Amino acid sequence: MSLHHVRRGNGSPLLLVHGLGAGWHSWDPIIDALAEHREIIAVDLPGFGQTPPLPGEVSIATLADSVAQFIGEQGLDGVATAGQSMGGRIVLELARRGVGGDTVALDPGGFWSDRELAVFGYTLRPSIALVRALRGVLPTLLGNRVSRTALLAQFSAHPWSLTQQTVLPDLLGLADAPATDAALDALTKGPKQQGASLGKVPGRVTIGWGRRDLVTVPRQAHRAVAAFPDATLHWFPRCGHFPQWDAPHEAVELILTGTH
After folding, report:
1. Model confidence pTM above 0.85
2. Which of 12, 30, 211, 238 is the most buried (most CB within 10 A)?
3. CA–CA gap between residue 58 and residue 95 (Å, rounded)
4. Strands 5-8 and 39-43, sheet pairing
């Protein structure tokens, strides 16, 4: 499968992999800042954005397969990668396989306990159902500080300070993407993320985590670093699940310094 993608900027290539939501537009808050320094290649995963769904099983493995295939097709062997949430898990999976180069994973999934995983599923599914029920009035609700705060409390440490333009693409993506439910099943019903022993990843690994993340809670960061002992852990102090929303300048700096 050929992944829809966009390219911005010049310089050493950097591949961006999104999580559940808007496809490559999930990176809108920071893609232009990144493109001032690097050639950015931002993909739509299968079933998100403009890429059609996978014809068979949807799992973290098959989604990672699609990105690995894209890297090969585009002649991007050794490319640096950055991902957020499910995308963070996918770039770590690629690193575990020896695919790509330097890796930055922001608040990746896959490192929860059984109880945390159950809470994740029980809370995120109703949130997605609510977003779908409110689909027609989301622009209005997100344009209001009070209703925006209520809708985004699970995802952002300071939703009242965000703009409608920042968050609307991801919420519309959650509601509309054909692969949202299948990808959520892959996260909640599939295996947890495997790690890589010391010295087995192809480049540097940086894991960034929001101190106030209510989706992949902060204690999971220590499990992620234990699974990837080559990794450096960076904390975003006043940040929820989306560093590109809550700490865009810091996210840009971390991605640029963590990759070359």
Report:
1. yes
2. 30
3. 20
4. antiparallel
